[in-house]
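Example 5.3 — AP180 N-terminal homology (ANTH) domain-containing protein
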Amino acid sequence: MYFDMAKMDAIKALEIYKRAGQQAEKLSAYYDYCKNLELAKTFQFPTLRQPPSSFLATMEEYIREAPSVSITRKSVVSAFIVSKIASKKEIKTLNINPLLFC
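Solution (predicted structure tokens):
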């Protein structure tokens, strides 16, 4: 979905994603505070996990290369993803045929 967005929509989505990450950090700090309270000793707080920073970097990179209009053609998005994988030389490690994405 994200890689099908037009540039302005992708920018807005990235801002929301970053804000959600900041809120998750604050919520995690709040959970840590609550764990020290006597009333919350028996409560099990959920573990919040952030996606890897490489995911955020890929989202930012897409914005730099994103078209100004929405693209729904799968081959264009797949070509972008394959080019990123190939640039990291993961394609040889995974034995993926790039033609499968076209």
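Remark. Residues 41 and 95 are 49 Å apart (CA to CA).
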